[in-house]
Amino acid sequence: MAGSDMLTQLYIQNIAVIEQASIDFEPGFTVLTGETGAGKSIIIDAIYAVLGERTSKELVRTGAEQASVSALFTDVSPQTQQVLRELDIPLEDDGSLLIRREIRPHGRSACKLNNIPATVSMLRAVGGTLIDILGQHESYKLLSPEVHGTYIDSFAGVYGLLAEYRAAYTALRRIKGELDALESDEGQKSRRMDILRYQIEELEAAQLRVGEQAELTERRDEIRNSERIVRGVGEAVTLLQGDEDNGGAITAVSVAAESLEQAARYAPSLSNVAEHVRDAEYALTDAAAEISDYLDNAMFDANELDEIESRLEIIYRLSLKYGETEEEMLSFLDRARAELSDIEFSDEKKELLLQQYEQKKKEAVTLAKQLSAKRRAACESFSRRVRQELSELNMPGVVFAVEQERTPLTAFGCDRIQFLVSANAGEDPKPMSKIASGGELSRIMLAINTVLSEDSGAAETQIFDEIDTGISGEAANKVGIKLRCVSKNAQVICVTHLAQIAAMADNHLFIVKKQENNKTYTAVHTLTKDARVREIARIIGGDDITPLKLKMAEEMLGRPHES
Predict the structure, then answer these.
(1) What is the largest CA-CA distance in the chain?
(2) pLDDT reading at 335 higher than 90
(3) Other C-beta atoms within 10 Å of 559: how many?
(4) Are 438 and 467 contacting, i.e. CB atoms less than 8 angstroms apart?
């Protein structure tokens, strides 16, 4: 087995008839068996839920407030780690990943990746790298034509070339977008230039300066309140310096300082306070001088106020159109100049872009053709190997082909790829989604996954849900052999009703349903060797287990398995 992305444990609570179940999974090939209606499909539904697929609120067990499913994966693969990095989800210290989803009858689901809240779409993105579920009528991934090309690319080993192509294609689309923008209507272009020129002229004429509005507003308020300012400053000067009748605060403080200095001659402890008071005198003297200078030089011209009001009105009017602050208005001016320059020189720019476009288109086409050629070779080899697998699965008459059609350039290249199948002789191959027979479809899916798993193109955990529908005898035996083959490269979990397949497994889980206190419960047990013999005997011939059936079961378990 590849040894990565292994489903180690599944914990289910209140999902349908399963009140609580903890299922441990081992590497290799594991089968799930049980009577019809025991709950095997519920386990698959639970896995679908934890992988982010759509769920029905009817899954919640009757009477329960919520249901939950947790899945623990160990040895997480590089592909899964890359997705987790893109989602900013760290792995646990031991490299494991725990996915949890809660389902409520009323309200939204809750999802977590390693105990970090996540969305259903995040679960789906991670789940796509962890598990493939192949069922009777559907596949988790392989039935989607959109992913067929990714499998062929993985099979062909062209991801490096594809990344190089996509870089060229992205640049091509960017250049095309710039060209389309330049191809606007000439009349519209002319009107836009007129608007830009007007805006530029208006802003340039204003000669805006950052901080000017705040400065003007402060000066305006100063002039408006000039009477209060002059009166207050005058009173302050008088109080500090005094007038003809009274001495001011400076004189009083000077006298106090002198008195303290005399006292300090006899009481040295007063020296510091005397010094502080003298410093206060000097500070008051400096302040009085500064205030007097302000009063002598203060000019409050009414004409200046008119000019300020006019300038503020201009700035305000411009701010309504171009931005609240001077910075925003000047930034608008820079953008307008740049846009006008682009339009004025659009012909020269267009010519340059056309040259770049043709150069990048040539590069993208060359890379796309290289991709297409490698894919064509891979399609032929892939088809041949899948047909060989189908022949080994007792389906020699099935026609499998890979359709590769040329398309205009896309992010994928110049190809559209999908898998085609014809299950009946004489019928033209059709898309896989059109195949009606569940048994045939399951074996076709198994053949494809066998090839992909051998080339590491599929998820490391693969679940086959009732792949044995519609088959028996030698076909069932070959399906079992093929599942064992796949389990060498991936963890395989299979829900089956056939003894031939169950006997091929490395591990056997038995699902049983019982009733207690008028309630139905489902439990999951790991079978010992003896218990496996009885279960395979039951599958062979029903609940009436005879010595002959037990002997047949022992022989099936004891015989060597082909690989």
Answers:
(1) 136
(2) yes
(3) 10
(4) no
Residue 348 contacts by C-beta under 8 Å, 6 or more apart in sequence? none
Three-state SS letters, 352-401: HHHHHHHHHHHHHHHHHHHHHHHHHHHHHHHHHHHHHHHHHCCCCCCEEE
pLDDT grade, residue 205 (50/70/90)? Answer: very high
Nearest-angstrom CA–CA distance, 360 and 358: 6
Q: Which helix (H) or strand (E) holds 236?
A: helix 226-241
Token pair listed for 331: 């930034």
Q: Is the pTM of this model over 0.85?
A: no
CA torsion sign for 15, 21, 24, 28 is negative
Higher-confidence residue of 243 and 170: namely 170
With helix as H, strand as E and coil as C, how does 187-229 read?
HHHHHHHHHHHHHHHHHHHHCCCCCHHHHHHHHHHHHHCHHHH
Residue located via tokens 């990746």: 113
Instruction: Report how far apart, in Å, the C-alpha atoms of 366 and of each of 171, 200, 310, 359, 406 are.
Output: 15, 46, 65, 11, 14
Which distant-in-sequence residues (6+ apart) come within 8 Å of 521 by Cβ? 17, 18, 19, 513, 514, 515
Are the C-beta atoms of residues 19 and 495 closer than 8 Å to each other?
no
Measured torsion, CA atoms of residues 150, 152, 158, 159, in degrees rounded to the nearest 10: 20
Mean pLDDT computed over every residue of the chain = 86
Identify which of 177, 164, 171 has the alpha carbon closest to the alpha carbon of residue 368: 164
- Which helix (H) or strand (E) segment holds residue 526: the answer is strand 519-526
The length of the chain in residues reads 563
Residue 452 has pLDDT above 80, yes or no: no
490-549 pLDDT, tens digit per residue, is 889 998 889 999 999 999 999 988 877 777 778 889 999 999 999 999 998 887 888 898
463: its two tokens: 């679940």
Whether residue 481 has pLDDT greater than 90: no
User: Would you state the structure tokens that stand for residue 28, as one six-digit string?
Assistant: 């290799």
Q: Are 498 and 518 in contact, with CB atoms under 8 Å apart? A: no
pLDDT value for 148: 87
CB 550 within 8 A of CB 533: yes
* CA distances from residue 133 to 53, 236, 512 in whole angstroms, order as listed: 11, 90, 22
For residue 390, give the nearest of 379, 401, 382, 399 by alpha carbon.
Answer: 399
498/467 Cα distance (integer angstroms): 10
**pLDDT over 90, % of the chain:** 39
Average pLDDT of the residues in 355-372: 95
The residue whose two tokens read 């089956």 is 496
